[in-house]
Amino acid sequence: MASIMLHSNMNTSFMSRLTAYGISIATSQQSIPSISTLGNTILSLATYPDPLYSTSPFSQLRNIPGSQLNDFRSRKGLLFDGKSKNTRKDGAALAARGSNARAKLYLEKSTLPPGVYDTFNRNAPGKRGYGWGDHGNINANRDDFTQRSHVTKNWSYVDNAWKLVNDANSISTAFRGDRVNVIDYQPSGSLSSIYKWNASAMSLIPGLNETQDFIKFFFTGPKLAPNATKEKDDVIVFRATIGSISDTFNPQWNAVQLMGRADPNYHYSGYSRDVSLDFTVYATDRDELKPIYRKLNALAGYTTPDYSGTNIGFKGPWMRITVGDLYNQMPVIISSLSYTLGDTDTPWEINIEDDPDMMQAPLMVKVSIGFNVIGDWLPQKGGQFYSLSKRFDEFGSLPGSDNWLSDSVTVQTIHQTRKDKFNADAKKQIEANQKYTSTTKTSVDSVKRDIPGEIVFNK
Fold it and tell me: What does the alpha-carbon distance between residue 179 and residue 177 come to, in Å, rounded to a whole number?
């Protein structure tokens, strides 16, 4: 039976493919995308008997047994007999550019009939998914809505801390809610623990106790700089249901009236920067309510004074915020924070069964927050105002292709400081080695040979 696909009578000779490559390369370099696309089309027709822009046969639009999610794009070009004429190769270019295990796995999965969605999806385990939750599982036990899951914590009077429940029913009940929402406030967290949602996960399968969000979004204490992998501080992570973000740069100019001029002269006197964003927190499971409100309470604490210490005064707290790669642990102070705890669209947990461990609280909270940006770097013309970098050290972001602002004044200045420090340390090491070599030679020349053939070094 013939396939439901378009066919072409174009020449599939070597010269056709060579011509197509030439058209594609030449026109892309001359910024003529429409003709470059035509070259790619000619290449595809010369390489395959079917064009790249074809659809999956209707007979292939079915779920494969044992595969929960199917990506029908991977079956584009399949014939009715199941033979592939034109499989997708998503991730091939990235895998070819370097060692990227995730890209290679993505490429492998994109060439198979289930596609990548069976491996990478919103609820896949570990960091292949986004912790969305398994709310619609038809096999879940829904006999008792008061049943707690294995991630629930009780207060331990012995340890004076929250501890995981240990009753058999809770341990055997899997958590099906949002795995980002259920991450608790961490007063002594680290950069590596931010998205660890399941404290009870066994280490037999590494990574299952972690998840990720579509967009990184969390707040931390000031100690957790981008490179501070060994530090501990507050960690407050929310699902990135962000409504809007605004970033305002405020130069300050003072008007100075000069004699003989009607128009004023302006003197630059200062600069400030404000960021505001709003997001909404939704509880999708009863076990999410406690950690959500503990995190909201901790965030509100950063608007109040800190009385810790030996002096009689107080100090104001500052924090760091991460939103995607725009702000990577950006130092800020909170200038405003408001919670909309209830409106006409807000459902509540009413605790109808009068559970002593459950509270009556809104299931949705709208958060609006404003910051004054402190920044890790000197604000200056040509400088770096967004992180947009993947690698950091104690000086700042490292230059490279994974830093979109590598040529900024900030990155270049920091890199020169880094090189000067490296050269100074190397010089000290060379001098220390030379001194050690000279001292050792003197010691060897001065020792006595008490035993023939044996030299005892002075220490």
Answer: 6
